[in-house]
Every structure is written in C-alpha cells, then in structure tokens.
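U., I forgot to send this yesterday:
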Amino acid sequence: MSRSKDDTAALYDALVQAHGPDFDIDSFVPDPEAAPVEVPPLENPDELVMTQAVTLQLSWPVLQRLQARAAQAGASVDELVSEWVTVEASAEDTVPRDAILHMLAQRQRRSA
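Result:
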C-alpha cells in the first residue's frame, strides 16, 4: 500500500475512534473563533513527503519512452519522475545516466 493510502487509512481510523463509525465528514468545518495553532518548525526529518508541480518539456518519442519505462516498472510516470528527481537531489554531484538506468533496473526488479 502506498504511503498516502496508509496515511489516509490512519486518519480515517482516528476519526472513527474519536467520532464513531457514523460520523459525517461534512460536519467538519473550520472554527472561525479558533485560536491559531503553533506548528513547530521542521528541523531535520528522515523523510519529507511533499507535492511539487513539475513541468517537463519532452519530445513525443521521449515521452513514449518514459511511459514505457514507467509501465515496465509497474509505476506511474509521476512516480518514476519523482524517483529520478529524488536520486538526483540526493546525490552530492550530478548523477550520471548509467546510475539513473541502474536505479530503474533496481526498481524493475523490485516490482517484478
């Protein structure tokens, strides 16, 4: 199960525990009188999950190759691009093409 589905299931379970199995999600509305909540600053988490819009400018053949690689890996194009960006951003220096292909091969073996 994906992390987002796990998080959603955990949130749903917490709501059911707090409000019973027949709670009405539409009854949850912001309280305009509520005081602000102080959120501690993010220090150094092991993993931060965020959504970031990315625009790719690709030729048609490159897009088709990307879609084929994602299908082979049993992943969406979004997941594959996310992995590529994560590998590149995690590296001390530029990640060579062979390292990206190795990462894809590892993913394909994991998915099989």
